[in-house]
Write a structure and sequence with these properties.
This protein has six helices and eight strands; from the N terminus they run E-H-E-H-H-E-H-E-E-E-E-H-E-H. By secondary structure, the protein is of the alpha/beta class.
Length: about 180
């Protein structure tokens, strides 16, 4: 079964690095807004950005956080994690530091964006429930192939993990400290 996914990533740093990944045939991802459409969204400020995210997540089975060097802790990445969890969507992370950017360069491995989140009154770490994957390969092409060969299974597992699980609120522990 082909799942519909929402890709969450830091556009400024990782759009080129993740372009091919976001077009793998085994999943149906959201399409990035054109530069002019995105400029219109950000001119509308926070409310417009939130509406765009909400609209793009509608009808998706899973949210995939593409983890670059500066992904963790970003305001809109945090919103997308919280929304995906609240909407009972599958949720997973894929490290993308070993994919080449538009200049052919790879990046530094970023922090886990799920590490600051907990679930429920007992504050179970979200990292206990959401899988992150650090793809292997000798070069960017091999890393891309590894992801392409495995992403459908990762998404299936994330969606199944959320099916039937309690709809417990996710909490940002960094915000409450």
């Amino acid at each position: 079964m082909t799942h519909r996914v929402f890709f969450s990533f830091y556009h400024k740093e990782d759009a080129l690095r993740t372009f091919d990944l976001r077009h793998i045939d085994v999943i149906e991802g959201n399409h990035a807004a054109s530069d002019s459409a995105w400029e219109a969204v950000i001119r509308g400020r926070e409310r417009a950005i939130q509406k765009w995210i909400d609209d793009e997540m509608e009808g998706r089975d899973c949210a995939i956080v593409l983890i670059g060097a500066e992904t963790a802790g970003r305001k809109w990445i945090n919103y997308e994690i919280k929304k995906a969890w609240a909407d009972h969507k599958g949720l997973l992370g894929i490290y993308v530091h070993n994919l080449a950017d538009g200049h052919g360069l790879t990046g530094a491995k970023g922090a886990n964006p799920f590490a600051k989140w907990t679930i429920g009154a007992d504050k179970k770490p979200l990292t206990d429930l959401v899988m992150t994957y650090d793809p292997v390969g000798a070069d960017s092409k091999q890393v891309q192939k590894y992801i392409a060969d495995n992403i459908a299974g990762w998404v299936d597992a994330a969606v199944k993990a959320r099916t039937g699980s309690p709809s417990t609120a996710v909490h940002d522990d960094a915000a409450s400290s």
